[in-house]
Specification:
There is one protein chain. With about 700 residues, the chain is mainly β. It folds into six domains: about 55 residues; about 120 residues, Immunoglobulins (Immunoglobulin-like); about 120 residues, Sandwich (Immunoglobulin-like); about 130 residues, Immunoglobulins (Immunoglobulin-like, Sandwich); about 150 residues, Immunoglobulin-like; about 70 residues, no CATH class. Helix content is about 15%, strand content about 45%. The chain is built from seven helices and 41 strands. Strands 2, 4, 6, 7, 9, 10 and 11 form a seven-stranded mixed β-sheet that branches. Strands 13-20-19-15-17 form a five-stranded mixed β-sheet, with no helix packed on it. A five-stranded antiparallel β-sheet has the order 35-36-33-39-40, with no helix packed on it. A hairpin with a 5-residue loop joins strand 39 and strand 40. Helix 4 crosses helix 5. The radius of gyration is 42 Å and the shape is flat.
Length: about 700
Amino acid sequence: MNIDFFKKIKELISDPQERKNIFASESLAIKTTLLGGVLIFSIFLVFIVLILEFLTPEINVEVKISGPETAEAGELITYTVSCKNTGNVIIESPELIFNHPDLSIPEKGEAIESITSDKFGNFLYPKEEKKITFKTRIFGSKDEKGNVRSWLNYKTKHSSATQVSEISTFSTQLSEIPIDLELDVPSKIPIFPETKNEFKFKIRYCSFIDYSLDNLKLEINSPPDFNLKESHPKAIEENQWNIPILEKNESGEIEVRGEFLKQQEIGKEMTFVVQLLTVIRGEKILLKETVKKSLTYRPVFLISQEINNQSEYIASPGEMLHYEVSFRNIDEKPFRDLVLISTLEEDSHDLSTIECPKGENKAGDNSITWNGEVIPELRYFQPGEEAKVEFWIRLKPDYMPKETSEINLVIRNNVSLGEFEKEFTNKVNSRLEIQQEGYYKDKYGFFENTGFPPQVNKTTTYTIVWKIKNYYSLVKDVAIKAFLPVQTNVKSSHCSQGKINIKGEFSERESPYSAIPADFSFENNLSYKTQSYEVKYLQIILKREVPYVYYDYVPPTGYFGRITLNSVMEFQKKYEKEILLPQNFKEPTGYVDKFTRLKLNELLTQGMPATSKEIVWELEKIEPGSGILSDPLTAAFQIGFTPTLIQKGKVAQLISEVSASGKDQWTGEIIFAEDELIDTSLPDDPSAKEGKIQ
């Protein structure tokens, strides 16, 4: 019997199908056993946890804050708060409290934020961890610290009273205050002790913070011997000015005029302090402070400078500048063998263009020298005597800033006469650069165009691309404009910033030939005694175009008779330049040929022609360095162009010259740029050939 049993087993094992069934059954049994074991073990663990919680409850919550240890003032920073239940008791009704730094502006506006229980799912289970982020901007002086605090309020089933976790803290130090505050006070102040001395200086400020600052105040602490008389703009209080709002890369300037009283000591140190402050939640905060110390001295020379006949001339890139430096001896004694040196800033001046008829300049050198051999006053300079020197130099048209903080361009000229030195600074306008490109094959992939090559009375679409660059300073209220011909209209548009407006855009009007189907066009030549529906449509057009030949009372019959013949001849005379001259015909033929049909079809497609259209791209502002240190701002639009018969065989204009204008926030002047028109020759598109209308 045992032998038979083993034989049976052997037969089963030798059968592949039976062997497969056995193994499948065994696998299922193993899986079932394992799942059952896992389930039993899980229940056992839960039971153990419940027993431990009931017998030895351990309540412990960890709150930790992570974030940047350093940050720039005004930078948007993120703090992450981790809440972890490290005990064996279920935390109920958890509420997280987060205290932002005192001198900060939280993204959500509240200095104390509360994350309610529902954001936690009302419970925080043992070993469970939740992470929540908070964003804020810290302000203050350099190296000042912003401190944050956070804790968790919660309950458990063991106590109905609210419990509080240990308070977690974190500090972020301000590593940089990205604001320029310049006090334009010379290192030496000219003083005549026997008289009152007028003195003026400027304060310039600019923000690089990626955030609009408001509620700013600027305060000046000047020496006690200096009396402030007036300023531009006017102060709201003595030595205090309001700055309503200051955006990124926006700058401002305050000019202060005053006087020093008589009997000023020569060689005395004068200290000027300027502070930029803001108010957050009622507390005054110092953002930036600049201190300038100067010594009083009694001058022997008065030196002044004019550029292009103006003392405070605002220059433009690429412009030729005429410098005139005047100097006067205000001392009681003469001076002999003086040397006057003018030293120019190299970055923005094109030194290769210097023209100095009486001065000495070596090629590539940024200084010009005059002596008594060419300027007699320098050989022997008598009291009260005055003289001047002059030179010409061009500003670089393509000087490029090296970094984003290099904005608000100025040009400097340091003049030295004997042991006396004086530096002159002049503002420079930013440079706008507009580039207009035209494509049939759109290399940027904005639009898919159709209808090439252009043909009379057929629409071809093109892509027009505008790219604008801005070099040195913030420019606001920018408008880029161009005009489109009558037979061109805008199909679609796209811009990276701002908005595009179409003024005078063609709108569909009721056709004057309502009796002619909208999709009809003349395909066949027509001649005397022809009869067809095309002749009838021809007569409808002739009745409107030459009513003095095809009279109103004559109905369109569809028969090409004598009246129709005379009317066609008159029509050909009316449009002689488009029908007769291209064929070298001196007289009308009365035969409706290809050129006559083209003109008829043009009248059908144009309907009632509209005036030219203006396309305007409006931008609220363009940051300095746009297109130079970053990608240019871009606008693209697809136009549909339908050539007329008179344009056949010619290159036609698609869009006029483009112009750009905006207000330079540094100089206060309106600056301009322009680029050439685009025609069907498409110089930017290598796939386009001659571009002549077919």
